[in-house]
Amino acid sequence: MKPLFQLSTRRYDEEITLVKKAMEELESNCKVKDGFEIKEPFAKAGWTFFNLVLSAEMTSVIENSGMMENAGGFRISEQLKNFLGHFLESKGSNVRITKIDS
């Protein structure tokens, strides 16, 4: 199963550029091709939501490389969500991220 995350923002036009650039950098760091997919956005109550899917290969590299070393959480999925949230934030993004089951 590929990890699926829902990102939300009130400034989609600005955030989507930041998220794509950050994820491309992470993909490059992991030396993975086609490591993520950003799904179509949808708006609700002033927020825009969009899903981010990581490939199994990219998830494996992140888990086994030590990148999640300081990401809090008890389960791997929680650590991965925290890692991604901090990574996106470090690249200037202010999206909210939640893990959803696919």
Features:
single chain, 102 residues, alpha+beta, 5 strands, globular
Description:
The termini are close together. The radius of gyration is 13 Å and the shape is globular. Strands 1, 2, 3, 4 and 5 form a 5-stranded antiparallel sheet that branches. It has about 100 residues and is of the alpha+beta class. It has one domain. The protein has helices at about 10-30, 55-65, 75-90, and strands at about 5-10, 35-40, 40-45, 45-55, 95-100. The longest helix has 19 residues, at about 10-30. Strand 3 and strand 4 (about 45-55) form a beta hairpin. It has 3 helices and 5 strands, in the order βαβββααβ.
Using DSSP, what is the number of strands?
5
- Gyration radius, rounded: 13 Å
| Overall 3D shape | globular
The proportion of residues forming helix, as a percent range, comes to 40-55%
Q: What low-confidence regions span 5 or more consecutive residues with pLDDT below 50?
A: none
Number of separate helices: 3
Structural class: alpha+beta
Strand content: 15-25%
Please write the string of helix (H) and strand (E) elements: EHEEEHHE
In quaternary terms, these chains amount to single chain
Largest sheet properties:
5 strands, antiparallel
Spatial gap, N to C terminus: 8 Å
Mean pLDDT: 93
| Tally of distinct domains | 1
